[in-house]
Amino acid sequence: MVRLLFVCLGNICRSPAAEAVMVHLLEKEGLGDRVFCDSAGTSGWHEGEPADERMRRHGKKRGYNLTSLSRKFIHPSDYEAFDYVLAMDESNYTNLAALDPSGRYHPKLHKMLSFGEGSVEDVPDPYYGGAEGFEQVLDLLEDACSGLLTHLRQEGKL
Ligand code: 4NP
């Protein structure tokens, strides 16, 4: 079982969307029982809340089911429990790296879009923007999830 944890700031927009896109892709590929996906936020500001209604609505239009409730990234148990910790942007990455000053878990920490084909490096925070921001998040995540699946296969993890 490969274990993937997607992380953003609030765990109500980008990381629950990443989790849902990846689960959908894995199920389509018949790999749903080989990979465990979860998500968390660095802030804990929205702990216990469902994903943002706008993110859920835009995801649903593409067939994604955003079901998880927001929770805070728990250091170090989340680093121990997961094989990949996938940060949505540079700020999330910096915060996650700062929780691990020894660098012990550094090999597990990646920026999500490092697995994408495009030149964009960060999934932009859609929280204060309009509808197009949520669509852009999904476009970027579909590309990166596909690249992540290819990576897992190339690494012999699937
Ligand atoms: P997320 O988006 O990190 O993609 O879940 C945000 C959600 C909430 C806030 C910021 C970003 N906030 O400021 O409450």
Short characterization:
The protein has 158 residues and is of the alpha/beta class. The chain has helices at residues 14-28, 53-61, 77-81, 90-98, 131-154, and strands at residues 2-8, 35-41, 84-87, 109-111. The protein has 5 helices and 4 strands.
What is the CATH C level class, in words?
A: Alpha Beta
Distance between the termini: 9 Å
Bound molecules: 4-nitrophenyl phosphate
Largest sheet: 4 strands, parallel
Q: CATH superfamily name?
A: Response regulator
- What is the CATH third-level topology name? Rossmann fold
Taken as a percent bin, the fraction of beta residues is 5-15%
Instruction: Estimate percent helicity.
Output: 25-40%
Oligomeric state, counting identical vs distinct chains: single chain
Tally of contiguous helical segments = 5
> Widest sheet: strand order?
2-1-3-4
Mean pLDDT: 98
Taking all Cα atoms into account, the compactness measure Rg is: 14 Å
Total number of distinct structural domains: 1
Number of separate strands = 4
Content-based structural category: alpha/beta
Named CATH architecture: 3-Layer(aba) Sandwich
What is the molecular shape? globular
H and E string: EHEHHEHEH
Regions with pLDDT < 50 over 5+ consecutive residues?
none
